[in-house]
Design brief:
Radius of gyration of chain B: 20 Å
Shape of chain B: globular
Largest sheet of chain B: 2 strands, antiparallel
Largest sheet of chain A: 2 strands, antiparallel
Oligomer: heterodimer
Helix content of chain A: over 70%
Distance between the termini of chain A: 47 Å
Structural class of chain A: mainly alpha
Strand content of chain A: under 5%
Shape of chain A: globular
Strand order of the largest sheet of chain A: 1-2
Order of helices and strands of chain B: HHHHHEHHHHEHHHH
Chain lengths: 286, 307
Amino acid sequence: MGQILFYGLMDGAIIALPAIAFTMLFGILRFPNFAVGTFMTVGAFIALTLNVTFGAPIWVAAIGAMAFTSVAMWLSDVIIFKAMRESHSISLLIVSIALSMIVENIIRLFYGNDVRGFELPLERPIKFAGIKFTPDQLWIIGTAIVAMLLVHALLKYTRLGKAMRATSDNFALAEVRGINTNRVIGATWLLGGALIGLAGVFAGVDLVIEPQLGWSLTIPVFAAAILGGIGSPYGAMVGAVLVGIAEELTGHFFEPSYKVGVGFVIITLLLFFRPHGLFGQPEIKK
Amino acid sequence: MSAYLISIATFVGFYMILALALNLQWGLTGMVNFGIAGFFGMGAYTSGLLTVYVGFPFLAGVASAGLMGLVAGAFLSMLSVRLRGDYLAIVTLGFAEIVRLFLLNEDWLTRGPRGLSIDVRPMSESFDRNEYGIFYLGIVALTVLIVYFIVEKMRRAPYGRVMRAIREDDVVTETLGKNAFFYRVQVFSIGSMFMCIAGALYAHYVQSISPDHFVPMVAIFIWMSVIVGGAGNNNGLLIGAGVVMLILEGSRFLGDFVSFVDAESLSAIRIIFIGVLLILVIRFRPQGLLPEPKFQAPVGIKTTRVN
């Protein structure tokens, strides 16, 4: 049982960061960005190039991946989404799917369809209190926690973070009160991109690196964000762990190949009974 | 070559049925459905399994697929159709993934990734290979016509006005005494039925289906048909389906002229091209090639614009 919980925590650590990015972008721009998963793949492949081709240690590769994904996502806003701020959320949703098709296939052009992995020293699993784990897995969970604490500090204690929360809460009001919403939007894309790039590296360490890597994580990421109440970064953190544990429980007691389906079942049941998530506030419809 | 063109035309037919169904759900009633591949696959396997294992004839197989679509569509929409558009997108996409996982993993029933081969075809003894292609194209074309007729009839009827009213504002529609929930469930189920019928026709045409025929990409192509053609316009999406197929198949021949790219890169470039085109259409011509006809007040009646 402890082992299952640990693996659940592990899955949660991978999907938590993109879920935070997804939920923050949704809070400000009001559309679900389906390209979140694909940008995780971008992060994984950039780190792969730095790590395998250039021989950089994995932590350097991870920083490079964060920087690249961050700028790439920001550029996607500048080139595509910026001109479409007034569009219907469904149009933007479809645009983001088209974007993820484009990005995924650019990756295919450069790297082909092969399955790859990082060059990491092989490590013996450690057994502690009946739970088996590798140092890599501890690093992933630890780094994810640090990243979440940093996001928390940013949102809570900095001017930018407060502006982000205000803009997400009420865009028009924030604008009237003199917040430079364009800067806030740009900063959210950059921050989101960095989180997604880092999570891509996590996924690459834990799973295998291939062009579909991020797409397979998209539904769990959405599930985590919706479970936590969309627009709420803290909810997304809790949601990610719950989704991770639910996936592992399904894998253990039911059928491992249905793990990916768990996210969908969670979303549907939750939306049916509590449409605004576990921690979200009901939206008042005019 | 002509056999190739006939097969392309048949595929355009499948796309048209799917696009008409999506137009009913999204273009006219405003319900997002990204689970097209799920319904398409469900229909294909329902008819395929019933004809192969139970010995149903072709028509009974197709009819069962339609019934399956009606039931599954009703079930999914009753669970989720109250949701906001973007949530509905995620739920329907998840539904398609579950269907694909089921087809992939329950190989005692579906033969899993090895795929299912279906030998049942209507009147297969009466024609030779080439003639049969034309005959089957006829069946598909007839189905397109029937579906087109039903959807167009629904659009023009008072029922269609309620559908569009729900699309524009469900609260106002409810205030006027229409139960938006029931309308939505009905429309969603009928659309899903058409999608499953398209799947069944597809299964008996290609005669060998596997779960990887029913990936989310199918949904993108159909959405693209509807968006390029013009959401809400049944004529537009017929053109849209043709345009999408033209791009998909036309770019196949690119390889004959550009020798320095291999097949793998070519298929990647093709999808990049489709993605870029889709974004450009949504950005610069969101109403599509043929915009939805707007009902206008008869001449002589003054309309006031409220802004």
